[in-house]
Amino acid sequence: MAQGKRQESSTGVYHVIAKGIARENNFSQIRERKYFQKIIRKYKDKYAVKIFSYCIMSNHVHLMIGAELPVLSLFMARILAEYAIYYNYKHNRNGHVFQNRFTSECIETESYFWNCLRYIHMNPVKAGMAVHATDYRFSSMREFFPGKAKDPLIHPDSLTMAKQKFGDCALFEEFHRKRNYEIFQDIYNEMEQQRLEVAEKLAREMYEQAQMNYLTQVFEEKSYREEYIKNIQQTLNVSQRKSKLLYSKIRNQVKNN
């Protein structure tokens, strides 16, 4: 099936995801993640792209990049191709390493920029690969803290923007512990988990605002239940069928806890 034309960001900033083919863990080893960092470092200046944030997971990678759309495509094609050659040779294999072409979403607002940056940095924590985002060695989170990263990949503009926005590292780190309603591009399982987290948050907010005695009242009483499903549909911009599926999962999750 032909893939659609990429949308162009009015800000020139994109959230990019490259996934291992067939969910293969093509960054499972430390030296593989280090090598991918090395490739990014090798080409980011050559193509004059700005790396605002990144995270290398075991089977996919997130990058927030500032670049013109044609340059972005050239840069990603180059780094993914070079890594594929390395990975195939290292594992004595042939064929594709990444699933189709990389995906990208446009970062159009300052709010979406910071929320997406936070989402990228929190991936290892959500996956149980680190207790705190600053513990993870293969993301840009450490690069925002003086002395934690020896050879940073992110563009100086990213540090300047963070300082202007948050003032100090403590507030920047505190921001990462918050959660909002936005859903970001990721592998399917991760996006579904994001939707479930938002749906659960909506249930708890309804429970608190209505001063219910039990959280299960959200699901047991018809008026609350209908309002909750409607909130899921509107907040996540999903179909009524999908909102009911999410409702059922959260209901079962709450009842089993």
From TrEMBL:
One Pfam family, short name please?
Y1_Tnp
Question: What span is annotated as the signal peptide, if there is one?
Answer: none
Concerning InterPro entries, the annotation shows:
Transposase_17 (IPR002686), Transposase_17_sf (IPR036515)
Q: Which domain of life is it from?
A: Bacteria
List, for all copies, the residue spans of the domain called Transposase IS200-like.
9-123
User: How is this protein named in the record?
Assistant: Transposase
Species in which this protein is naturally found? Faecalicatena fissicatena
Lineage of this protein's species? Bacteria, Bacillati, Bacillota, Clostridia, Lachnospirales
